[in-house]
Amino acid sequence: MQTRDRWIMLFATSMVSFMSTLDASVVNIAVPHISRELNVPMNEAEWVVSVYLVAICALLIFFGRLADQIGRIPVFQTGTVIFVLGSLTCGLSSSLPMLLAARLFQALGSSMVMATNFGIITQTFPINEHGRALGVNSTVVQIGNVAGPGIGGVILAVANWHWIFWINVPIGIIAFLFGHRIFPHESVTWSKVQVDWSGYLTFAAAVISFFVAIYWGQAVGFSTPGVIALFIFAAVLVAAFIWIEKRVATPLLQLGIFRSRGFTLGIISAMLVYMVGYFNNVVMPFYLQETLALSSATAGLILMAVPLLNMVSAPTGGIISDHIGAEKVSFYALFIFFVPLIIFVMVQPGWSIAVLIFGLAMFGVANGAFQNNPMIMDNAGPEYQGIAGSLAALGRNLGMAMGLSLATSLVYLGMSLRAGKHITAYPRSHPDWFVFAMHFSYWFAVALIVAAVILIGSLLRYQRRAVQANQSED
C-alpha cells in the first residue's frame, strides 16, 4: 500500500473509532434531557450509557478472535455499517426500551470496529511508523473519549438529544466509502471459523455479572448479600474462563500474550488512565451545570479544553515515542496528570473559571501524551497483533465502564458521608455536599495515577535491567 493510501486508511479507521468511543461518553451530558423527554427516572436514563459500555466489553474478545480467522477488514467494515444503522435507530427512538435496544445494536457494531482498528493499522504501517500512526489514532480515540461532554453540550445548545446520535450517520457513511475505496478486498472463508463458545459465554457472563453487581450495589449498597454473591460469581467465572482457555484446542484468548510484561502492564495502566478520564465525564458536567449554574453550551465549551490540548499532545507524544519509546513518554505523561487532579480536589465554586479551564487543558495534555496504544501493540508479538488490538480496546472500555461506576459510586458515597444519609441524586439545596463529594472522588483518581506510575516505573526498570544483562553477555 502506498504512503498516501496508508494515511487515508488511517483517517477512515480513526473516524469510525472516534465515533464509537465518542458515543460511550457523549451521552453523559444528555442523560437529563433524555430523562425528561422519555419521562423516566434519571437512574434508568443512565442505563443508556451503561448498556453500551458493558455490551462492548462482552463482545470485543469474540470479534477480535473472529477477525483473526476471517480478516480484520471485513469485520471492521461490517461493524461500521452496523454502527451507523444503530446510531440512526438511537436517534429515532421514542421510548427507553427502544433506545436501549438500539444502543445494544450500536454497541455490536462498535465492538467490531474497536476489535480490529489497531490490528489494521499495525499490519499496514511499517514498525518504525507505528508510534506516529498509533499516536494519530490515539489522538482521535482519546478525543472521542474526553470530548463527549463538550461536544454533547454544544449539540444540545442548538438541537435536541437525538442529534447526538444522528451526527454519526454522515460521518460513518463517508468513512465506510473511504475504506471501501482504499482497503484491500479480502475474501471471507467461513469454513475456517472455529469458535470457543464455552470460553466466550463464560467470559461474557463474567463481564455482565461484574457490572450488574456494580450497578446493583450503587442502588442498594455493596454490603448487600446478593451483590457480594454476584461479585463472587463473577470471580468464579473468570477463573473458569482461564481454566477453559488453557485446555481447548482453539482458545478464544491466547493467554501466552500476557507473558509479555510490557503488554500486560500496558493494558493495566491504560485501564487506570481511562478510569481517571471518566471521572471528568461524570463529575465535571454536574459541577459546571448544577453547582456553577452554567448553561449546557458554556459547560460544553469549557470541557472542550481537554480534547483541544489532547489533539496537540497525542501526535507529539507518538512522534517522540518512535525515538525514545512509548513507555518513557507515558511515564513522564503520568506526572502531568497530578497538576489538574490537584486542582480538581481543591477547586471551590468561588474560584475563577480560568483555573478550572487550565486544569482541564493540562488534563488534555497528559491524556494525549500517554501513549497506551503504541506501548500495548509494540509489546505484543507479531502473532498476537489481532487479539492484542481487541485486548487494548477491551482494556480501554473496561476502564471507561469501571471509571463510570467508580466515579458515580464515590460521588454518591461522598455526598452521603457529608449529609449523614444515603443520597443518589444531586443535592440542589446543599451544593456544598456535592463539592465535598467531588473532592472526595478525585482523591481516588490521584491514587489511580499513582498506581499507574508505579506500574510503568517498574516496567522501565525491568527493561533497563534486561538491556544491561544483554550488554554484559555481549
UniProtKB/TrEMBL annotation:
<dbReference type="GO" id="GO:0005886">
    <property type="term" value="C:plasma membrane"/>
</dbReference>
<dbReference type="InterPro" id="IPR020846">
    <property type="entry name" value="MFS_dom"/>
</dbReference>
<feature type="domain" description="Major facilitator superfamily (MFS) profile">
    <location>
        <begin position="9"/>
        <end position="464"/>
    </location>
</feature>
<feature type="transmembrane region" description="Helical">
    <location>
        <begin position="391"/>
        <end position="413"/>
    </location>
</feature>
<protein>
    <submittedName>
        <fullName>Major facilitator superfamily permease</fullName>
    </submittedName>
</protein>
<dbReference type="InterPro" id="IPR011701">
    <property type="entry name" value="MFS"/>
</dbReference>
<feature type="transmembrane region" description="Helical">
    <location>
        <begin position="222"/>
        <end position="244"/>
    </location>
</feature>
<keyword id="KW-0472">Membrane</keyword>
<dbReference type="InterPro" id="IPR036259">
    <property type="entry name" value="MFS_trans_sf"/>
</dbReference>
<keyword id="KW-0813">Transport</keyword>
<feature type="transmembrane region" description="Helical">
    <location>
        <begin position="256"/>
        <end position="279"/>
    </location>
</feature>
<feature type="transmembrane region" description="Helical">
    <location>
        <begin position="195"/>
        <end position="216"/>
    </location>
</feature>
<keyword id="KW-1133">Transmembrane helix</keyword>
<dbReference type="Pfam" id="PF07690">
    <property type="entry name" value="MFS_1"/>
</dbReference>
<feature type="transmembrane region" description="Helical">
    <location>
        <begin position="7"/>
        <end position="27"/>
    </location>
</feature>
<keyword id="KW-0812">Transmembrane</keyword>
<feature type="transmembrane region" description="Helical">
    <location>
        <begin position="79"/>
        <end position="105"/>
    </location>
</feature>
<feature type="transmembrane region" description="Helical">
    <location>
        <begin position="433"/>
        <end position="456"/>
    </location>
</feature>
<keyword id="KW-1003">Cell membrane</keyword>
<feature type="transmembrane region" description="Helical">
    <location>
        <begin position="47"/>
        <end position="67"/>
    </location>
</feature>
<dbReference type="GO" id="GO:0022857">
    <property type="term" value="F:transmembrane transporter activity"/>
</dbReference>
<feature type="transmembrane region" description="Helical">
    <location>
        <begin position="163"/>
        <end position="183"/>
    </location>
</feature>
<feature type="transmembrane region" description="Helical">
    <location>
        <begin position="329"/>
        <end position="347"/>
    </location>
</feature>
<feature type="transmembrane region" description="Helical">
    <location>
        <begin position="353"/>
        <end position="370"/>
    </location>
</feature>
